[in-house]
Hints:
This protein is an alpha+beta fold. Helices cover 44% and strands 14% of the residues. A 3-stranded antiparallel beta sheet has the order 1-2-3, covered by helices on one side.
Amino acid sequence: MIELKKNNKGIALLIVLTTVLLVVILANIVLTVILSHSRLTRHQLNRTQAYYATQAGMNYALEQLRIGRAAGGWESQPNNNCPAPNGCPLPPDPQLPASVQSVNIILWPPGPGAPPTCNPDFTCIQIVTQYRRTE
């Protein structure tokens, strides 16, 4: 028969401490994953809002070009109002989300000097949107 020693008082404490340490480590891992996922979701939301703000800028630019001279569009104003390379900002809109800092519209007239992605036979519209991470 195997005899057990009577002084095993420290073993229970060691098992409890090890178990608590493992639970703390696992909880830390779970919290880190949750916080990381939350940051990634917020970043994706900001990017999506910036994308749609860019689309709004494109629609605004197309509408200004469509209405033309007769209705007071960009073509009726000196220097086309949004000449390259500086462009012009999208008018303030209270519906734009706080994460979108600016939407800048740049018109590249037909001809040389336009970016390589633009067709030199047409007016090229370039929209630059800046957004920031919100907490």
